[in-house]
Amino acid sequence: MSPALPPESTPVAWTQFGLGDEPDLIARVLLEGQPGCPSITVDGVTTTMRERRDGRSGLYGAMCEERLKLDTALHVRIAFGSSVILDQNVTRDPRTVAVLGDTGCRITSFFDQGCGNPATWPFAQVADSVARQSPSLILHLGDYYYREAPCKGSNEDCVRAPYGDRPETWRAEFFGPARKLMAKAPWVFVRGNHEDCMRGGYGWTYYFGDDRKACEVVYDPSVVRLAGLTVVNVDSAHADDKYAVVPVNQKWKSIADTVASKVAGTAGPVLLTTHVAPYFVCPKSCDKGGVADIGGVRVIEEALRASGRQTILLAGHLHTFQALDAPGGLSQVIVGNGGANLDPFPKGTVPPPVIDFTFTDWRRTGDKWQSTVDNGRVVGRAQLWGSVFGFGMLTSSTLQLEMYDAAGQRQFGCSLAGEATPRCR
Residue 64: in which H helix or E strand, if any? Predict the structure, then answer.
């Protein structure tokens, strides 16, 4: 039997749901210089994982992969000799669902978050806190990659580190701090605007995508049918790409025509996951163009609600927490406080107070999508929890969302099952 691997050289292993209608469960291992692929044991049957034959492997790292059909439940175990790197009971009846987003450490030519300081970038702490909760499904709402430039030497927390869309950066940003959490439960990886094709999209597509395409402007949604719950993952990565306004909105509108039929016959509510929130309370004033650019995602959400399905929209993008309710059954939660620099919202109290909000629903229109139309105003209630890093844990049977800080201390709970007032208390 092979000797156990030291922790620092243990490959990163995970399972995830891919893209498309009823996607495969995919087991992946990102190798750390090991020769050959590990063994995988599925319900007691052991085989050797296959190395992914992909031209991008030389750039982003060798990876082993196995695609699995998940009926009701599977026991998945991945090991190099005596070193078990993943041991999961995967089920279509996830009792607890972890919700987090916007986890990377922002470094640009004009801003340095301080990635060497866990107080200013606590994603490793957040990931460990989530892992201790032992979720049965993990939803990442996008934005993994923020290190677009070298850190500023004038910053006392500047630690020489990689940047740019390359494997060393992805290890520093995500795979390293999330190593334990990666192996805990299956993931749904939402693509963020930091993973568009002009930023980290090529890395995201290699690690978390589901085909050999290098980078698409809009990927097809995934529809994951679970027991009493359906997760619909909609790609909004290019929502703020002014040059892609036409194709992304056309794609979203075409998705809206079919997504309601795809969830027909499933039981329970729909969790519509995307990155750029279609409704939100702005930290200052809302940008008319930005509101209009994401209008096509609001069309998808409306199509699901019009089909009679209870729809809960989960998003990130804003680095804060928001729960929003409006007439007509709109229920939306933003969980974007997983580690990236927080947005300038006032520090929230516990539980967050209820405020009234008004959202002008601008949408793109016309053959070239260059003009906007006022689709009316959304008036409702909101609860904001600002200036705090953290994550959420959703109980699927009750739709109770518990919010935690980075250290894993419970802060408050939100009932997503109905129209409770206040929703979070």
Answer: strand 63-68
Look at the chain and count its residues: 425
Please tell me whether the overall predicted TM-score, pTM, comes out greater than 0.85 for this model: yes
Share of the chain above pLDDT 70, in %: 97
C-alpha distances in angstroms, 390 versus 115, 259, 297, 315, 365? 17, 31, 26, 14, 37
- Residues 6+ positions from 310 with CB-CB distance below 8 Å: 268, 269, 270, 329, 331
- Angle at Cα 240 formed by Cα 130 and Cα 150, nearest 5°? 65
In contact, 316 and 275? CB cutoff 8 Å: yes
List the domain boundaries for the chain. Answer: 1-91, 92-415
Q: CATH fold of 1-91, please? A: Immunoglobulin-like (2.60.40)
Do the beta carbons of residue 121 and residue 158 sit within 8 Å?
no
Residue 149 has pLDDT above 50, yes or no: yes
Structure tokens at 185: 């439960």
Q: What is the third-level CATH fold of 92-415?
A: Purple Acid Phosphatase; chain A, domain 2 (3.60.21)
| Average pLDDT for the chain | 92
